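[SOLVED] Need 3D model of a two-part complex

Original post:
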Amino acid sequence: MMKGLKKWRLFALLTALIVFLSGCGKNYLSTLTPAGEVGKEQHNLMLLAVAIMTLVILVVVIIYVLAIVKFRRKKVGEDVIPKQVEGSTALEVLWTVIPIVLLLILAVPTVALTYKFADTKAMDAKVAEGQEKPVTVNVTAKLYWWQFEYKNEGIVTSQELVVPTGEKVYFNLTAGDVKHSFWIPAIGGKMDTNVDNVNKFYLTFDKESKDLKDGVFYGKCAELCGPSHALMDFKVKTLSRSDFDNWVKEMKASDKQVATGDLEKQGEQLFKTSCISCHATSGVGKGSGLAPNLATFGDRNRVAGVLDHNTENIKKWINDPQSVKPGNTMPQPEKINKGKKFTDQELDALAAYLMGLSVEK
Amino acid sequence: MSSTAKKKGFGATIWDYLTTVDHKKIAILYLIAGTLFFVIGGIEAMLIRIQLAKPNNDFVSAGLFNEIITMHGTTMIFLAAMPLLFAFMNAVVPLQIGARDVAFPFLNSLGFWLFFWGGIFLNLSWLLGGAPDAGWTSYASLSLASPGHGIDFYAIGLQISGAGTLISGINFIVTIINMRAPGMTFMRMPLFTWTTFVSSSLILFAFPPLTVGLFFMIFDRMFGSNFFDHTMGGNTIIWEHLFWIFGHPEVYILVLPAFGLYSEIIPTFARKRLFGYSSMVFATILIGFLGFMVWAHHMFTVGLGATANAIFAVATMAIAVPTGMKVFNWLCTMWGGSIKVTTPMLYALGFIPSFVAGGVTGVMQASAPLDYQLHDSYFIVAHFHYVIVGGIVLALFAGAHFYWPIMFNRMLNETLGKITFVVFFIGFHMTFFVQHFLGLMGMPRRVFTYLPNQGLDTYNLISTIGAFLMAIGVVLLVVNVIITTIQNKPCGRDPWGDGRTLEWAIPQPVPYYNFKQTPLVRGLDTYWIEKMEGNKEGMSYAEPISDIHMPNNSIIPFVMVFGLFVAGFGALYNPDADKPWALAVLIIGLAITFGSMIVRSLKDDLGYHISKEELMNEKGGNE
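Solution:
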């Protein structure tokens, strides 16, 4: 008996340890390690809810266990006919009122936060002379990539959202083809990108992302949108205000990027005949919504949102997009290269050119 | 038409079931068909979990994965859970209220065949160019963009089977209002009858929005209308509203009868009257009513605005109150009772903590700002599986063990039943408990894969192992059924020994006319009252033995629905330019359906009578 118990305790301890070790997930992805005000408030709300719910579960479990232990037929006796109780008004009132009170405790912050998170008046408000408008990002979700247009700054990027820390960043969200949903778990969530209308909300980013494992927070599409829904990741780079201003400045100058080196130049030529009709390489202006803007391609963290960022994967992606992201709208190379696949050398050139597109180097 | 068990040939038995209008046989049909679809949906679930067992897995392709999740959800909700509950409703409700059958036996048969052919139609999509792939919710922008005929199979298949559900729902409402035995007032109705009644009323109001939505979808995809096409002035959010105005009550349509089953099982094996009967009835009605007020909590992230979100958040929390009342009433039923842990009771005991866990995570998601994080993540997957598996599937298993004696005059093996429970229960918690954390750690739902080393690997593996345990549990249950069928030992009347309601008072096997004389109901738990007063027959009677009017069997429902099934293919392929025969198929199918309707209308079918003498001669067996 004791031996069995000891084994049990060891098992329980191990289980608890496993849960604890992997309990919170990764700080660039998990809602349990919030790195922004919205996420933190949501996390606190969750802790409150969990506390209340644990209380409820405890009460139920105690009554439940006691009832089973005390009133087993083996204990009560085989032929005993229990008293046929009809019910109890006092008890009914008790377990109606107490839950209502508990729910009210949860309902108050719920309603307050619902209104707070929906407050986006500042994004359209007039600002005083000399003051800067709040950073507002127009997000367009497409199969299976993201466009981020900074309307006040007059720049556009894609796949990697870049934002300043320590201030509210406002978002206008919409979808270009089918419905998607914009979610950065570690910062706060979430809002759908509908095809019919523009949704607005805000987030704040407290922590600079450069210390994270991949140097970015992970963003997700949270609404089923087709075969490659699972691969529709985006990344979030959070910079201090001064770094962000710098980035904006570089972005505004990104139309002057030129390829250096022979391989890069060959790549640029190829790009101009095959890719340029959809992909822009200048981050200035508004997004076309046709295909991801590539002005910052060399700074990126992943190829096609999910592959590691290296030449090999760029070549793989260009050579056969459908094998990487089934159902995506990037044409197979035959369609854009006069019916032929790119040669390995051409792919090298394209990759070299793309890797050279950068505003941070 | 002779009476009971004559040995029949195989063909004759099949013909009997194709034409039957007897609620007891229709219950068996629902049970078999529901189990078939439950197994199909279960296999789909296993494929999902195998694919997600490790990161970057390529067990199934991305597109196929979406088809599997769509069919898993659709099959489990519409073709497994609902018909299995209908099986118990059909088997038990007429007996519980002292009726000889449902109000409309012909419609009962029609409802079953609609569900069945609709389900077959939907599942044939696997063989005919691909299953639907837009999720069981089939949100409009994605479902309109979906290539192939998958979504058309979804829309037409659900339309056919949904009509069956609606018909069955109406049938039960009328049955319960009109067919109760003398003395069975509303407040003497057993809880399973009550929940069936409320659930059927929900069907009556919840299915029409789905019907409308599906018709819009069919028109958009096949006839070029633009209800949901935003580029032509349509709106996709309308689909979401229509779907969830149906979809949320649907949850209660499923869970209320499950509550009803527990409310029968717990008093039986606690040997004690259900605690707070009237508040249980009140809670049931209140849940049903509130169920219609909360659909937008599925849409907190859609952007309906703060006021809408706040109202729906608070309304949703309110549902926790009557649900909590039920839980405490069950606990108090056990308290002071004499609890015998049989297999059905074991399932009921497993249900209480599981469902409370599912309920509290529901309250968490009712809190709109918190739901912004939880929505469409694995947290919600964990939540609704706790409610559906922990609430409904456990009830179905419990009900199967509990009512097997009523349906088949046999007892399922108790030992094997308890082993099944343990395996399934551990597997269930293992599969879904960790999914709460997967969601909180940033895993969206409906993803066919995930990246390695992002903290998601271990829990996904644990979840998959749990799913295998659940599968083993289901296999054990099937084995139990086979063993019981082979052993073929009749168990007689009231085999649990503690039956309380009328269905346990009927001699076994239940005569095809149910009650030789209509019983007189003298209070809640009729049979218990008679037993306590030492009445060996188990019933008081409200009438002397007299002729019984019975309906004739009919093949017409089967043919009528088969016509719709054929017409479905015509409608589905009609837009295809390369399939000119489709229009002919559509017309032939509809001709079959309308033809059989005309036959039904013009041919008088007055049924037959069992004479008093025949009834007197009948053993009407005691035991």
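Edit: The mean pLDDT of chain A is 90.
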